[in-house]
Amino acid sequence: MPRRFVRESKFRHVFGETYKRDLCYENLNITKNVWDGGRYCDVNSKFVAVVLDSNSGSTFVVLPIEKTGRIDSNISKFEGHKGKVLDLQFNPFNANVLASAGEDGRIKIWNCPDGGITENLSETLCDLIGHRKKVGIIQWHPSADNVLASAGFDYDIIVWDVEKASPVRVISCHSDVINSMCWNFDGSFLATSSKDKKVRVIDPRKTEVEEQIVHEFNAHKGSKPVRVHFVDEKRVVTIGTQRSAAREILLWNLDNVEEPITQHELDDGSGNLLTVYDAFLNILYVAAKGDCTIKYFEISKETPYVHYLSQYQSTTPQRGFGVLPKRAVKVNKCEVFRFYKMDSKNLIEPISMVVPRKSDTFQQDIYPKVPGDTSAFEGG
Q1: Of 147, 255, 271, 351, which is most buried, counting CB atoms within 10 Å of its CB?
Q2: Going from the N-terminus, what domains does the chain have, and what CATH number goes with each?
Q3: pLDDT tens-digit profile of 139-153?
């Protein structure tokens, strides 16, 4: 039997396909804020939300997803924050509800009417007030409706009951700025990375700090912000830099966090990392602010665990991304992921990640079951 030199994978030939210009979103004065722990663009099956540079970055627009082409500069905006908007995210169980967080220390919950707003809107469904400094990251709970986690520059994480506009838990186990935060698949744990170079896995159901920290370990030795994602119940992946500033991917087994399972060197780029993990297909997408490429890797349970697949190359640098929920991709096109790239020319450009297949029928092997738009239970 001949020896195989190339690892077999159904995703080895995934490629990025850029949408035509008339299907992009032009003439958007996209924010130039330097904070990169949150997202300045978010997408769902109905809308595209984008933070703008107008009014010192305190406003954003929510466009019907089909409203492509050149956007009127006088389009109605969502306003109300008294400082820059640092993160926004649609509720996964209600496409018309959006959360935003800002330098004013407030989290605002908005209603986005079908078809978009026709005049500037400052009235919210509710405000979540509890952080003592600006709020840099928000994350809706993946299985419970009306539950939101926020990370502030006061080093606290607050888990909110949004319906009651009140905190359920305040987690004070960090000693520096939180750069990255994510829930695991069912929302039983949070993972964070911090400016103190530590990665923490947190049980938000516990009340005592000593019980809340399930795992705590030093990850990357470089000074750049670290990104962290849950891979499965036992593993997390971190993306950061070495002391030499070279970028790297580290995979960790939570049963033993003394040393990573594997290390994969990336490159020597200088931009802060932008990462997205597709937990359903086990594909990690790695980019950086100011770069023109998106590299993607498959994470497996077999050595060497992290497998380079390919990269998408464009001609314009990226500022950040929005990501379409998995349940909204075009299955007849074998699309497995879709970015909404904010570029340096005030353009939002959809990029479709496609598995090349000859048939346009449903390909069950590349579409595992994913969460729907109904929550498993209500928060509160």
Answers
A1: 147
A2: 11-172+316-358 (2.130.10.10), 176-313 (2.130.10.10)
A3: 999 999 999 999 999
